[in-house]
Amino acid sequence: MSGAVLLPGATGLNGSGQQTTLGVMGGGQLGRMFVQAAQAMGYFTVVLDPDVISPAGLVSHYHIQTDYLDQQGLAQLMQRCAAVTTEFENVPAPALVTLGAARPTAPSADAVAIAQDRIKEKAHLARSGVPVAPYAVIETATQLAAVADVLLPGILKTARLGYDGKGQVRCSSRAELSRAWDALKNVPCVLEQMLPLAAECSVIVARGWDGSVVHFAPQLNLHREGILAVTEAYAGNMPPALADQAVTAAENIATELNYVGVLCVEFFVLKTGSPECTAIGALVVNEMAPRPHNSGHYTLDACDVSQFDLQVRTLAGLPLTQPRQHSAAVMLNLLGDLWVDGATPRWDQVLALPGVHLHLYGKLKASKGRKMGHLTVTAATPEQARSTALVAASVLGIAPF
Ligand code: ATP
Ligand code: MG
User: Fold this and answer.
1) Residues of the domain holding 83
2) Which DSSP symbol is given to 320?
3) What ligand 1 atom has the least distance to the C-alpha of 195?
4) Is the Cβ atom of 286 under 6 angstroms away from ligand 1?
5) Contact 222 CB / ligand 1 (< 6 Å)
């Protein structure tokens, strides 16, 4: 179903006053921030997530605790809410098909199904006007044997269910590649050429039911061990020509997919002068996330409209306005590693610094690499944001960047 305008707050106050309710599949931190944005505007919220305790379930008006494909759970969700979104790309597409037949559902099952499968995804990304990394699909031993030499060294990535660098193995020889595919249980994969990265960036766009598109300027992202560690968002964080190219490509991808909702597209910037850069070009599109993205969390504190506000607006058929960033921002991810010895990080010391915004997701167990929260430093200038963020990082034991 396509979207109607779902006005927030209680409707029909002179009759049977009812709260407009928005639903989200998934109870992680992205769901939590969606719920908080929706509630701030006066919507009621419902979260479907199998866990008893989840970051979004904890703050939502309603929590339906069933599996994503549970027919009763889906029926309850449809009964409770006027429209449904999703907060992670591995929600089974059939669940979104069921929901989409009865309620405006954004993003659509089709768009999510493409993002869930690297093989389908690459085919779509390649139409954006920016190239993808040279790659080969590996579904059979014959395809494995036939990979071109240029793809090694490379990264073997499972076609499905990868996140935060999981389901990826770096291989420098054919023997390693073959062992890696066995280690990944011979599931469908893509082998990507290992590219010399100068930087990584991402672009977040939001597209409405009427086809209108707005975007945030590209964020510069630093990954450590395959996990986002730092995002720097301010004018001049990357060459303007590349930034424009990335925004156009992200808009093209959203339009091409007839996408509704918030979409993040990740890019690689190749080292200038490298043979790969000469052969492919400076900008390479890596992957897309059919939802708000970790690299866009700074928008909560540094922009007049956040990525979660835009997720609410797209879902509810409300107008999209072009976001304006009012502060330079640096975001640090707070991973479970900060709690390793059981001690609580010194939030008091960090909050003594100017422009620090602390976001913790309500998770009760910390483990290495688990996203527990994030911290955004806003400032009048990029230099101030960076220098304060470096102090915050050193207080918390996060490596400098
Ligand atoms: P996400 O959590 O963003 O969904 P993911 O597990 O799907 O991550 P990718 O984005 O494919 O993984 O890769 C994770 C990181 O590994 C990238 O951000 C980049 O730092 C590095 N990487 C991936 N592919 C390549 C490549 N072809 N060449 C060089 N580095 C790469
Ligand atoms: Mg990625």
Assistant:
1) 21-105
2) P
3) 28
4) yes
5) no
**Residue 298: inside a domain, yes or no?**
yes
For residue 192, give the ligand 1 atom closest to its CA.
27
**Top mutation candidate among 271, 285, 286 for ligand 1, by most atoms within 8 Å of CB:** 286
Q: Is the CB of 89 under 6 A from ligand 1?
A: no
Provide the b/e sequence for 353-390 (b: ≥16 CB within 10 Å): eebbbebebebeebeeebbbbbbbbbbeebebbbebbb
**Domain check: are 174 and 311 in the same one?**
no
CA of 171 to the centre of ligand 1 (A): 14
Same domain, residue pair 389 and 274: yes
Indicate which CATH number applies to the domain containing 88: 3.40.50.20
One domain, residues 247 and 173: no
Q: Which residues make up the environment of ion ligand 2, defined by Cβ < 5 Å? A: 266
Is the domain of 246 the same as that of 351?
yes
Are 367 and 232 part of one and the same domain?
yes
Contact 374, 219 (CB under 8 A): no
From residue 332, alpha-carbon distances to 108, 161, 191, 350, 374 in Å are 31, 25, 30, 12, 6
Q: Is 160 in the pocket of ligand 1 (CB under 6 A)?
A: no
pLDDT confidence band for 13 (50 / 70 / 90): confident
Cβ 154 under 6 angstroms from ligand 1: no
Ligand with an atom nearest the CA of residue 155: 1
**Residue bearing tokens 């996140």:** 163
- For 341-383, what is each residue's pLDDT tens digit? 889 999 999 999 999 999 999 999 999 999 999 999 999 999 9
User: Which residues, 6+ apart, have CB-to-CB distance to 376 below 8 Å?
Assistant: 297, 298, 300, 301, 302, 329, 330, 331, 332, 356, 357, 359
Ligand 1: centre distance to CA 222 (Å)? 11
Assess if residue 117 is contained within a domain: no
Per-residue pLDDT tens digits for 155-193: 999 999 877 667 899 999 999 999 999 999 999 999 999
